[in-house]
Write a structure and sequence with these properties.
The longest helix has 15 residues. Strands 17, 20, 21, 22, 23, 24, 25 and 42 form an 8-stranded antiparallel sheet that branches. Strands 1, 4, 6, 7, 9, 12 and 13 form a 7-stranded mixed sheet that branches. With 771 residues, the chain is mainly β. Helix content is 4%, strand content 39%.
Length: 771
């Protein structure tokens, strides 16, 4: 990025031409040209450095005939302050898009016969296109017109000198202005001049303050607070959760108990909706009331659509037609969260799900069905042993519920992407390592073709994987990008892009949601303090609370944040847009029908070359085969420990030899967590998979290699993989395959053993079931 520099703009001298017209002058900027200071070394035209330029010009008004009226139309990319004879006339809007809203000033009260000096301070806030556009029109009592337009006759400088705007300033050494475009040329096109002129001579100062704020924001890579203009585009309506009653754990000992499980089961930095670790089978954040802000404007007070009383509700979402609001709620006395929907105008909520399950995080699919998170699979997660959470779909009325993911860990907060897929937060714990890693994963609505879109992308090494990637509150944007809450604040990027291609916005953000126009709703935190007990002593630690809903424009330069609603001390979270939105395209189902006769469904996995990998430390010269493992979640849990590290029941499905070109092709059980090991000729592991894979009934999934770069594609014009010359090897767990307890022995302290040895010692069906 180019260095930001602010320097003084030399005043442009507008050369007047005295013209006589028999009719009214032309309207708008016709005849004017976009001008700027001549490029300096290294600058390209329309790609100027950031900085300030000064322009001057002068004209003469006759004593007779007298002046009847005078107006000036002016705009600048990005900011300007206009002076006449050293007196401020007015200034531009302070947002980066203000150039598209020109100003029109009535100068009649500011002018008198004789010499008139016009001066403009023009500021380019960030490197890029820059230009000043001006048209002055005066009308005398005999209908004679005096017209001035910005052109190459203006004078300019890029060096600030005191009193440059005063009439007696000597501008003889200033340069001639550079014409950077005719009126109507790109990138600006034609702009609309206001229908009426505002009086000139008002107070100025906002532009200087905005320029200083922008310079500071650029230097610190932060977001600029913006005061909205009169034509600022506000959302139609916004729904949010009020009365935050979420469970939080301060980043210090509370002194309540040395065994306080919240210290390890709830870990969401700055109380944001991020998922480095959140074991509770409830929405990440909950509150007591569902609130509606309509119209969504500053000064409008929200109304309560539903009050849960002593219960709690959370994870609201809205239908694409804007008529329904879906949310999760546990009424007072309920043992579980269930799904509800309520009409956009309010009324009695309709309960959609029931039973001994936690159903949370609903979102409407393009076909009208609902995707949601649930504990219905009935197993316990392998790390701390809370209920596993997978994704389910159902009809709009709550009927025909079935799973589309079968994780033995956590899948949370599904959202529908612009391309019709489902993006969600996946906790990627794994039995063979102390790995607690979150990522954003995408699937088709039937659960097929899953792939990680955002994650650490660190390769196969273990280092730095414990709660290292904080992500949550995924917000698909209409142009295909995705925003999410991250450790940086809010991150925006395109699916599958590498870390360096993502844009990070430094905000104390609690959550984020997309608006239909590409801007973002977010909650902004206020720093606070809380007293905690540490080593028997009370101390004050930093805390944060959320009571403001704002609109972030990620494409403004710099990014601009505008306050929509301030709860004035009350807490809130989870704002979402309420209104009609375009429906993403429908995606055809690819899942095969279930086989007859009770036979378990299967799917297929193909790897082009297992040796294509980022892991260069493994003993690939010894690798001869791939061992395929299946994981089964536990259906019981410890009753006495809050850190269980229970693992799972791991089934050894079998081993497939690598073809000479490194390829393999297997048939495996569907809807089952699958993992791989690269093994040598004696079956000893050289490289272990660190994530569970999934295949749906009849699905055929492929990969390029083991731990290959996420952005990698199959080798172009590669010969047909040798493994495809034969039917897939059936690794279906038939007979009595080896079962063992998969877990992380190094963390629990049970057995400080290498994986292969632990695999033998923790065997389940290799030991007698009798005393």
């Amino acid at each position: 990025m180019r260095r930001l520099r602010f320097c003084a703009f030399s005043g442009i001298l507008l050369l007047a031409s005295l013209l006589s017209f028999a009719q009214e002058p032309e309207s708008g900027f016709d005849g004017a040209k976009w001008i700027w200071h001549p490029p300096v070394a290294g600058e390209a035209q329309n790609a100027f450095d950031a900085g300030t330029r000064y322009f001057r010009t002068e004209l003469s008004l006759p004593e007779s005939p007298a002046l009847r009226s005078a107006e000036i139309a002016i705009t600048c990319d990005n900011l300007f302050i206009l002076y006449i004879n050293g007196r401020p006339v007015g200034e531009s809007e302070t947002d980066m898009g203000g150039w598209n809203r020109p100003k029109r000033f009535d100068l009649s009260a500011l002018l008198s016969p004789g010499r008139v000096v016009l001066a403009v301070e023009a500021i380019n806030t960030l490197p890029g296109a820059s230009g000043l556009l001006v048209k002055f029109e005066a009308k005398l009592q005999n209908d004679t017109q005096i017209v001035l337009v910005s052109d190459a006759g203006w004078k300019t400088t890029d060096t600030g000198i005191g009193n440059w705007e005063q009439p007696d300033f000597d501008d003889q050494k200033w340069a001639k202005a550079e014409v950077v475009g005719e009126y109507g040329a790109g990138p600006w096109g034609k702009v609309v001049v206001p229908a009426t002129a505002q009086p000139g001579g008002g107070e100025v100062g906002k532009v200087h303050a905005a320029a200083a704020s922008i310079a500071s924001a650029v230097a610190t890579k932060s977001v600029v607070r913006k005061v909205p203009s009169g034509d600022f585009s506000w959302p139609d309506a916004v729904v949010f959760v009020g009365g935050d009653c979420s469970l939080y754990r301060p980043n210090a000992n509370t002194g309540t108990s040395p065994d306080d499980s919240l210290s390890v089961t709830i870990f969401n930095p700055r109380k944001a909706r991020t998922f480095p670790e959140h074991d509770l089978p409830a929405p990440m954040k909950v509150g007591h009331s569902l609130m509606l802000l309509k119209p969504a404007r500053p000064g409008v007070q929200p109304q309560a659509l539903h009050d849960a009383g002593k219960g709690a509700l959370g994870s609201p979402s809205t239908s694409f037609d804007g008529k329904w609001i879906h949310f999760s709620m546990a009424r007072e006395g309920d043992a579980f969260f269930h799904l509800y929907r309520i009409a956009a105008e309010g009324g009695t909520p309709q309960q959609l799900t029931d039973g001994p399950f936690f159903d949370i995080d609903p979102a409407e699919l393009p076909d009208g069905r609902i995707v949601f998170t649930s504990t219905r699979m009935g197993t316990f997660e392998e790390y701390h042993n809370p209920p596993s959470r997978a994704l389910y779909v159902m009809n709009a009325d709550g009927s025909d519920i079935h799973s589309i993911t079968n994780t033995i860990i956590f899948d949370n907060e599904p959202e529908v992407l612009a391309d019709g897929r489902i993006l969600f937060v996946r906790s990627d714990n794994f039995f063979d390592r102390g790995k607690v890693e979150t990522l954003l994963h995408a699937i088709f609505p039937d659960g097929t073709r899953g792939q990680t879109e955002f994650g650490l992308d660190m390769g196969p090494e273990y280092v730095g994987r414990l709660r290292a990637f904080n992500c949550g509150s995924p917000a698909p944007m209409p142009d295909g990008q995705v925003a999410y809450v991250s450790s940086a604040g809010i991150t925006v990027g395109r699916m599958g892009h590498s870390q360096e291609d993502l844009r990070n916005f430094a905000l104390e953000a609690g959550d984020v949601a997309a608006l239909p126009d590409g801007r973002l709703l977010c909650t902004v935190g206020r720093p606070s303090t809380v007293e905690v007990l540490e080593a028997g002593n009370r101390k004050t630690v930093r805390d944060i609370s959320y009571g403001e809903i704002s609109i972030l424009d990620p494409d403004s330069r710099p990014p601009a944040l505008t306050t929509l609603y301030d709860a004035a001390g009350s807490s809130l979270h989870s704002p979402v847009y309420l209104g009609a939105r375009p429906r993403p395209p429908l995606r055809p189902a690819m899942v095969a029908a279930q086989p007859d006769g009770g036979q378990k469904a299967t799917g297929f996995l193909f790897c082009q070359n297992a040796r294509y990998t980022k892991n260069t430390t493994a003993g690939w010269g010894h690798v001869r085969a791939i061992r395929v493992l299946a994981g089964t979640g536990l259906t019981n849990r410890s009753s006495h420990s809050y850190i269980v590290h229970a693992g799972n029941e791991t089934v050894e499905l079998g081993t497939v030899p690598l073809a000479p070109d490194g390829s393999f092709f297997v048939e495996v059980p569907a809807d089952t967590p699958i993992a791989f090991q690269a093994v040598d000729a004696e079956g000893r592991s050289e490289l272990n998979e660190m994530s569970w894979q999934y295949v749906r009934p009849g699905e055929r999934r492929t990969c390029v290699g083991c731990h290959q770069p996420r952005q990698a594609a199959p080798v172009a014009k590669a010969p047909r993989a040798l493994a495809l010359n034969a039917p897939p090897v059936e690794l279906l767990g038939g007979g009595k395959p080896h079962h063992f307890r998969g877990n992380n022995p190094a963390v629990t302290g049970m057995m400080e053993l290498q994986f292969d040895r632990f695999r033998e010692v923790a065997g389940i069906n290799r030991h007698s079931s009798t005393p």
